[in-house]
Every structure is written in C-alpha cells, then in structure tokens.
Amino acid sequence: MKPFFDFTVDALKNVTNTFNMVWPIAAGLWNLRCQVSGVKSEFPEISEKQLTAKFSLGSGIHGVNYKLSFIDKRWEEQKEDFAWILLNSTIPVLEAWTEEVEKSFPSTNHLQLQYANTVESEIKKATIHESTIMKTCFYPLYIAQKDRCTPLLKNLLICFRFFKEMRNCYMHNGMRAHDNLIFAYNKFSKISSPQQLGLQEIPVHSVPVKNNKIRLDLRGVVGFSAVLRKIMITVDTELVRSEKAEKQFIARWQEVHSIHRVLKSDPVGAERQVARYIKKCGLPVPSSTALVKNFLLQEQLLSR
Question: Are residues 252 and 9 in contact, defined by beta-carbon separation less than 8 angstroms?
C-alpha cells in the first residue's frame, strides 16, 4: 500500500531511486579501481592522459584524476567519500518533505516536525479537526502498514538528528565533530537498539569525538534510508485521519472520476462498484464500503 499523500509518495520515490543506485555505483567504482590498478601495475609509466583516453573516452565525463582517485586513495576512503555524498543528498529529502507537510497543513511548522520533542504536538495540530469517514474507513488500513511506527517515532527522529548533525559537520565544520553532534549522539546512544527503532539492524556508525574527524560508513547511510522511510510513512499515516485528508480524497475522486458515476440498483453490486472506483483513486478498499458509499452520495459524488 502506498502512502496517502502525494508528497510522501514523491519523497519515498526519491529515496528509493537514490538508494537503488548505491550498490551498482559502488560496484562500478570497485571494478574500475581493479582495472586501473591492473593497467598501472602492468604499465607503471602510463600517464594520466593515457588513463583518461582508456577509461573516459566516449563517456562524456571529463576531469577524472585516475591516479588520485584509484591509485593514491584506498578503497575504504573512497567508500567513505561516497557515503558523505550520499548522506548530503539524503537529509534534504526529509527536510523538503516536512516543508510539503507544512504547505498542506499550515498549522504545522516544518522544522518542529524534524524534532523528537515536538513532532507529536505538530501532528496534533494537523489532526485537531478529524474526519469521521477517514478515521473510520481508511485510517485503520494505513496504521496496519509494516513501516508505520508511531510508538517509535520519537526514537526515529533522534536517529535522524544524529545523522543530520553529522551532515552539518560535513558541510560547516570540516567533517569534525562539534558540540551539537556530541549531544545528538548521546541521545541516540540511549535508544540505539533494533527494537527501539523498529529496524533489523542499527545503521552502522562510529562514536564521534569532539573536534576529531567523523568516520562515516556507506552501509550505515544505506541503513539510515530505512529510518527516513519509517518517519515519513508514520507521519503520513497519522495525517490520514484529518479533515485535510478528507478534502484530498474528494479532490482525488473528482479528478479520477470526472464523469459522474451512477450506482447499480443491486446493493451488493453497488458496494463492489464503489470499491472499484476507490481503488482507481489509488486508495485501498475501505474497511466499510457501505459507509464510504453513503458519504459519496451525501457529497453528491455519486448518485443512485
């Protein structure tokens, strides 16, 4: 089942597309290293220009320093460089997603959605006006999702904060640990077990030491993507019971069913008809098709 809100679907697609490329790119780097090293060992006097001609010709890629990247730099260092690039492109996905939540729910604050101690109050603001039809007929289906972790949401955001502070150190502090990172790690270390985060394993990480260079693990950043996924799906699920979600449901129905639908006279057939129309909207079959049918009739989105 996909999330209810389009902005969550788009954000998760962004994360999925990024991380689907991680291991193929890493494997490609490893194989290129092997090829460059092999050529260099057989022909030690080969020039950078000759390496470029051999490995870059026809690719449209310019400026690769093969000696620096594949001879002078160790594989572990290269993987770590890749991990930093990946983390730096991953954190903004959740930041942009919280901004989209704020646009749809103006009573919320996108920054407060990113903190463990304020996220619950932000969800409460967004759902203060609940929709009876959404809470009764759709919300129970969404809370059954595998990645929905409302009881663990605070812990997931504590993990997010730790990785975000590492990213901040990368961007603004020369990859060296500052006080904010140490504080974030101390909070994270108290909840860093698979059970407390709803994960099969904790994202691989090292213990930061103030003013020392931070060590980042590629496997850990890949594992961190599961944390982002759970955060977004959990919040999206809680927003399903809101009046805004009801309006979104109506708007989606009107967009998909531009031709006014007429129900069959047979009650059982009519409910099957409604279930089919709802699935065309990209939504799961509701827990009570009869209640949704009556709602749609009341809103004049269907007729008998």
Answer: no
Q: What's the predicted TM-score (pTM) here?
A: 0.93
Looking at the DSSP assignment, which residues form a beta bridge with residue 213?
176
Domain interval for residue 261: 257-303
> Does residue 274 fall inside a structural domain?
yes
Task: Note the helical H segments in the chain.
Answer: 6-20, 22-42, 48-55, 66, 75-104, 119-126, 132-137, 139-142, 153-172, 179-188, 194-197, 218-239, 243-256, 267-280, 289-298
- Number of structural domains (the chain) is 1
Please compute, for residue 146, the number of CA atoms within 13 A of its CA located in the half-sphere on the CB side: 6
Q: Calculate the alpha carbon distances from 155 to 106, 192, 195 in Å.
A: 25, 9, 10
C-alpha 89/C-alpha 86 separation (Å) is 5
Whole-number Å distance between alpha carbons of 174 and 214: 9
Report the alpha-carbon distance of residue 204 to residue 230 in Å, rounded. Answer: 17
Contacts of residue 243, Cβ cutoff 8 Å, sequence gap at least 6: 129, 130, 131
Give the residue ranges of DSSP H helices in 204-288. Answer: 218-239, 243-256, 267-280
Q: Is 113 helix (H, G, I), strand (E, B) or coil?
A: helix
| Residue 286 C-alpha from the chain's centroid | 26
Over the chain, what is the mean pLDDT?
Answer: 95
Is residue 267 domain-resident?
Answer: yes
- Whether 82 is in a domain gets the answer no
Q: In Å, how far are 101, 117, 122, 231 from 8, measured between CA atoms?
A: 9, 22, 17, 10
Segment 43-66, tens digit of pLDDT: 999 999 999 999 998 889 988 999
pLDDT value at residue 57: 87
* 269 inside domain: yes
With contact defined as beta carbons under 8 Å apart, do 75 and 36 qualify? no
* Tokens of residue 224, six digits: 């961190």
pLDDT at 189 over 90: yes
